[in-house]
Recover the amino acids of this structure.
């Protein structure tokens, strides 16, 4: 078995000067060449998890309480070299004051010993692999001269330029035109296969995960509440939150019918709760949901942090 | 881009003319600035001496043209010092953050709380009264203002994803400053600096007026007004024309700075 692209083991994180618990006991892994989805709504901790994995959390902000993160088998600060990051907003991921060639060449030379000419050649090859027509013209351009889809391809090129073992894609298509979203997703999938890259795909779009990912993690309130093979999780969700999330997909609701929303909101970090973070919004809540034991993991391949998960698949309406 | 406003055109043309005069004037208008003709003392403006002559018979128009070069160069030098220093300190503070940033910025605040012209006066006096030291003193004391603006710009830039991406790729602080911070910080800071040319010119002229800047034979505007003090009521043109030169130049550069800011910064554009 090859080394895992990403291994997060029992990772717990506090943030800010008040040390609020933001991530709890996060277990997550991505194999080489595997695409894994991480879904959750705003405030669920998915972006924080991504930044922690990449080692991009400012020291003053994040305090690791427990657990370990290993990327491509590497632990500690040097794991950054193993991560390529695709950001949500391609305009802000590129320096508006510099031409693309300068940015790519700098990125390539930061990771390997190459003179400018060789690095530029490599940059052109990289852009061509990402199906950018006329790489020479793109290299000579400033970011504002490119379209959104082209910019995102350049961002992917930047992420790949360091030959990472893990690609983190944080909402890679949210800021794009619908017409180019599919292109970019397909490109990420092809590159992952060709380069044997692990991909952690962070999104709130269930359709994107269904299209891309073999496995899926669902996050809520800093906990991974459900995980398993994508097809299984989507067909038979076991955690009430996942069920509510899937029910609220607009494309699954009959035209004209009200979209079932989840009542309430994600509890703020400062809210002190014991037990399940979803309990206040859950339709199936009972007294024992407020005890810590409600967070015990149920299941083996397809897991859920809910004591109803065992029977949950069947009594879902 | 917004259409060019008449105000901007006017200010740009005026400033351009002054810069041209400073660059070419001394070559165009014959006669050295310190050409003394004792039988031509304190003559009122005439066709021969447009702005009149001073108490040793030097032509005031020629001296003001020569003075444009001295005063502008001095003002731009103070800005170059302030901008460079401010950008380095503010950019570094914004990039590294944490207690280093806090310490640097509190220091900057402390310096800002003292009236800078008074400190510049003391500093110039301590260094020795000449134009170079006056420029140095004013330049150093303008660093805090630029540092604050630079830090605000740097903070906004550091939050962008390309800075995170560069950090991921192992970029050093030096590389971050060179490739990501400076190119994106410079345009807004230059606009801000343009608005400060007037104030810088006024500050150097003030020090020269007090006697801590340019020393007498130098045809610097502030020094010229200083020399004209005893003739203030009897020979109006002696102090009027150098004063007018300062007023017009300061106004035009301030106008240009404001117009540029309105043009480039939509947040502050008046509606």
């Amino acid at each position: 078995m090859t080394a895992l692209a990403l291994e997060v083991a029992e990772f717990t994180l506090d943030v800010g000067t008040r040390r609020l618990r933001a991530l709890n006991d996060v277990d997550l892994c991505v194999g080489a060449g595997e695409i894994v989805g991480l879904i959750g709504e705003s405030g669920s901790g998915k972006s924080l998890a991504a930044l922690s994995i990449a080692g991009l959390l400012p020291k003053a902000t994040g305090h690791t309480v427990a657990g370990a993160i290993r990327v491509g088998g590497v632990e500690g600060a040097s794991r950054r070299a193993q991560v390529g990051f695709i950001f949500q907003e391609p305009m802000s991921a590129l320096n508006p004051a510099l031409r693309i060639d300068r940015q790519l060449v700098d990125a390539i030379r930061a990771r390997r010993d190459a003179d400018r000419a060789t690095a530029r050649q490599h940059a052109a090859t990289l852009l061509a692999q990402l199906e950018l027509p006329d790489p020479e013209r793109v290299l000579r351009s400033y970011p504002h001269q490119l379209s959104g889809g082209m910019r995102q391809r350049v961002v992917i090129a930047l992420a790949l330029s360091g030959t990472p073992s893990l690609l983190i894609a944080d909402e890679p298509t949210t800021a794009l035109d619908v017409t180019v979203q599919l292109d970019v997703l397909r490109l990420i999938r092809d590159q992952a296969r060709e380069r044997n890259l692990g991909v952690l795909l962070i999104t709130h779009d269930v359709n994107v995960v269904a299209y891309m990912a073999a496995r899926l993690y669902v996050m809520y309130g800093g906990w991974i509440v459900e995980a398993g093979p994508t097809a299984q999780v989507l067909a038979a969700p076991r955690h009430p939150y996942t069920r509510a999330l899937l029910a609220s997909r607009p494309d699954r609701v009959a035209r004209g019918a009200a979209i079932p929303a989840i009542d309430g909101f994600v509890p703020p970090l400062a809210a002190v709760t014991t037990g399940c973070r979803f309990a206040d919004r859950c339709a199936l809540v009972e007294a024992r949901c407020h005890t810590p034991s409600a967070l015990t993991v149920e299941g083996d391949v397809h897991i859920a942090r809910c004591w109803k998960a065992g029977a949950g698949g069947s009594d879902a309406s | 881009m917004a259409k060019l406003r008449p105000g901007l055109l006017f200010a740009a043309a005026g400033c351009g003319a002054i810069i041209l005069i400073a660059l070419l004037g001394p070559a165009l208008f014959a006669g050295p600035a310190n050409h003394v003709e004792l039988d031509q003392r304190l003559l009122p403006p005439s066709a021969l001496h447009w702005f009149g002559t001073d108490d040793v018979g030097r032509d005031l128009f020629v001296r003001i043209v020569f003075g444009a070069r001295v005063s502008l160069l001095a003002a731009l030098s103070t800005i170059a010092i302030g901008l460079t220093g401010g950008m380095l300190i503010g950019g570094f503070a914004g990039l590294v953050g944490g207690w280093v940033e806090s310490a640097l910025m509190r220091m900057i605040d402390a310096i800002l709380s003292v009236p800078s012209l008074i400190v510049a006066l003391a500093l110039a006096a301590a260094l020795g009264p000449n134009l170079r030291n006056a420029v140095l003193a004013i330049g150093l004391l303008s660093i805090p203002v630029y540092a604050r603006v630079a830090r605000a710009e740097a903070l906004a830039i550091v939050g962008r994803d390309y800075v995170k991406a560069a950090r991921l790729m192992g970029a050093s602080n030096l590389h971050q400053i060179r490739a990501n911070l400076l190119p994106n910080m410079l345009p807004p800071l230059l606009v801000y600096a343009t608005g400060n040319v007037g104030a810088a010119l006024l500050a150097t002229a003030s020090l020269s007026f007090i006697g801590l800047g340019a020393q007498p034979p130098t045809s610097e505007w502030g020094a010229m007004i200083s020399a004209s003090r005893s003739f203030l009521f009897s020979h109006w043109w002696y102090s009027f024309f150098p004063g007018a030169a300062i007023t017009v130049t300061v106004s035009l550069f301030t106008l240009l700075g404001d117009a540029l800011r309105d043009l480039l910064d939509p947040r502050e554009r008046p509606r």
